[in-house]
Amino acid sequence: MKTFKSLVLLALICYLSNASAQRIDVKEKARNAATNRADQKVDNTIDKSLDKIEEGIGGLFKKKNKSTKETGKDKSQKRNDVAAEDQQQPSFATYNKFDFIPGDKILAFDDFKQDALGDLPAKWNSTGAAEIAKINGSEFNWVQLSGGDAYFNPQYITQMPDNCTVDFDMVINYSKVAYAYYQLRFGIEIISSATAKAQTENANVSANTGLTFNIHPYSDQEIHAISYLKGETQLETKAQFPALSSPAPIHISIMRQQQRVKIYFNDKKVYDLPQGLPPAQHYYLRFSALIDAWNDNQNIAKMYVSNLRYAAGKPDMRNKLLSEGKLVTRGILFDPGSAIVKPESAGVLKEIAAILNEHKELRVKIIGHTDSDGDNAKNQQLSEARAMAIKSILVEQYQVNEDYMTAEGKGETQPVDGNATTAGKANNRRVEFVKL
């Protein structure tokens, strides 16, 4: 089998190398990718294509069988279309009920790249064992949360606005031997106290006011929601999410609209609580870990968090596009250095598609923007590929009229925020829809 895969891979490289003298040297790109993958943005497409072949997916050969007859479309536009298709965009069918749309302005973004492995995150406060770690071969850093009775506060999520969103990637790692022990849970909390630890002695509920989502990976993959006012429980309910047992990252999305709170685990809306948050002057976000002494000593239960994004505002996408003529979104997310759209972008894409399909006469230009990391020329190409990928998804998966959309990229040339901070970079990584 390995010999067959090697022959297929070699045949592909030779075929692409000899197909057109004007195209890039794929052999050279492959060698560069093997030795310096970190310097790839647009070139990342080549690596992904080779990886697909190694896994037995012959998609590129399939594409070569398509008719090459010109239909009047500009040739350069056609090349961009092919590049976007080669990104192997995921299907958003499973996210058809996902309606999470992040806030307009990013207040904080944390991927922990600025922190050294083994250190406590510089912008966090903790009463337990929190340190930066690498997991699952991930290219970015994670904050590892553990401890017998510990609380972890991101110091940049303070005095949350009435309308705001928080989303992040989460991994829960635990051993099956932990199943037998009830006292093992992790928490995501919106709490009215800014202190790292504030709880009653035995209730595992804050002594003041807030909303807690307790994650119990050991017991039927349950998520308990508890709303409380000055230490008194106002609401208590539970739901299940079977994927808690998977080692794959889970994307958590939280939307606050005054007292109403929605929380999603991947594509599933786990809770929609219209009165989830009792009235309070300020709210803060914190994480918690409650692990009994035996499990904590055995070091078999940990929670990991990364790519934490905190944004303010209640987006009015319809008004922005139809009345003001320009919609700017930071809710269309991509894999690092590529034009592959992440499935958690479905809420934004679905809303935009609904507007365009309802107003069929509307013509728009899709403009991609990047931050300033990396090479200027590659950022320009990356922004173009991302704009084309969005157009392709709107056409192929949401049936928007292709003839009424154009796509282009501006690279890093039009920043709207500074590139010195992670939040500034996240604000600059955006997509604009401009009415023509």
TrEMBL record:
<dbReference type="InterPro" id="IPR036737">
    <property type="entry name" value="OmpA-like_sf"/>
</dbReference>
<dbReference type="InterPro" id="IPR050330">
    <property type="entry name" value="Bact_OuterMem_StrucFunc"/>
</dbReference>
<dbReference type="Pfam" id="PF00691">
    <property type="entry name" value="OmpA"/>
</dbReference>
<dbReference type="InterPro" id="IPR006665">
    <property type="entry name" value="OmpA-like"/>
</dbReference>
<feature type="region of interest" description="Disordered">
    <location>
        <begin position="64"/>
        <end position="86"/>
    </location>
</feature>
<keyword id="KW-0472">Membrane</keyword>
<feature type="domain" description="OmpA-like">
    <location>
        <begin position="324"/>
        <end position="436"/>
    </location>
</feature>
<feature type="compositionally biased region" description="Basic and acidic residues">
    <location>
        <begin position="67"/>
        <end position="82"/>
    </location>
</feature>
<keyword id="KW-0998">Cell outer membrane</keyword>
<feature type="signal peptide">
    <location>
        <begin position="1"/>
        <end position="21"/>
    </location>
</feature>
<protein>
    <submittedName>
        <fullName>OmpA family protein</fullName>
    </submittedName>
</protein>
<dbReference type="InterPro" id="IPR006664">
    <property type="entry name" value="OMP_bac"/>
</dbReference>
<keyword id="KW-0732">Signal</keyword>
